[in-house]
Amino acid sequence: MSERVLHRSLTPRAAAVDRATPWLAAAAAAGLAVVGATVEALGLLSTLTTVFLFVVLAQAWNLLGGYAGYLNLGMAVFFGVGAYTTGILAYRYGWPPLATAPLAGLTAVVWAAAVGIPSLRVRGPYFAILTMILGFLVQSLAYNAAVTRGAMGIYVTPLPWDRHTVEQVFYFTYLALAFVVTWFVARVERSRFGYALVAIREDEDAAEILGVRTTRIKIGALLAGALLAGVAGGLYTQRIGYIEPTGTFSLDISIDVVLMTMVGGAGTWQGPILGVPLVMLLAELLRVGVTKVALFGTRVPVEFNRVVLGCALILIALYAREGLMGVLRPVRARRLGV
Question: 80-139: per-residue pLDDT in tens?
């Protein structure tokens, strides 16, 4: 169904809301730009920058994981490959990491084509387990390869500005990237490519019988997600200034991305926008709160928040697969009369 046909199928009020979406997005962008230009608190600026970074990663995961239903637990691999690409080029050859971010995305695409495409031969929980194992293998490779400097990690030359200015630069960079990626995913959602991804999620065998080129569609979603995650990782290296295998290829990154998308609503472009800030706020509250709790005279470790978030992910997968968008969509539909 083309976008023009879709507009004709909506009520006038729903179509008006649909046409107003770009203006609302522009207003949001202007508001966030004002925030970035005026906020002096470095902690708040850094937190918002991280929110935009995870919006990019969640949207990248959403293409294959949300629309096609392939649970990818290896998103940190694409992110880490991008981070190490810019790190290696900066450390060994003096290339500016900001300029090599697109190259980081392309390297992640090559990696996805070499390793990720064969993994698409399996489905369901087997795909999830395989992508998680691949993440551990890549992390182990980073620990043992000479080019990555193993556990010593890689330092890059910091930008020649004070910390607040640097954070502002990455605030606006990730903000722009988050808007572009969200716009791209929203376009995909209403394209033939997006409908094909949904068809694969609903019944891959039936979609293939009906003429959907499932293999080509899945590969396209995987490579697009890898490209976006790689670019985000490439920028991350310059922002942090130091990368090492444990943090860069952490399984926590992959699980957080899945959790954020599923909380907001996997398979919708609005899902990551809702889920990322909500999960980050919950994680921060748990991180601060659990350290004040004592059980049997022993302080609860801060890592307990991962247990809570893991339980939340299981509950959402079992009882609320459409996340917040599954709650909001019926309400919005009743108000719009669709």
Answer: 999 999 999 998 888 876 788 889 999 999 999 988 778 888 888 888 888 889 889 999
Question: What residue has token string 């392939």?
Answer: 70
> How do strand 154-155 and strand 242-243 relate by DSSP bridges?
antiparallel
Q: Are 122 and 130 in contact, with CB atoms under 8 Å apart?
A: yes
Surface-to-core class of residue 72, CB atoms within 10 Å of its CB (0-12 exposed, 13-18 middle, 19+ buried): buried
**What pLDDT shows up at residue 322?**
79
Q: What share of the chain is helix, strand, coil (3-state, %, to 5)?
A: 80, 0, 20
CA pair distance 271, 174, nearest whole angstrom: 18
The amino acid at 147: V
**What crossing angle do the helices spanning 192-209 and 163-189 adopt, rounded to 10°?**
50
Q: What 8-state DSSP symbol labels residue 291?
A: G
Structural contact between residues 263 and 94, judged by C-beta atoms closer than 8 angstroms = no
- Asked if the model's pLDDT at residue 306 lies above 60, the reply is yes
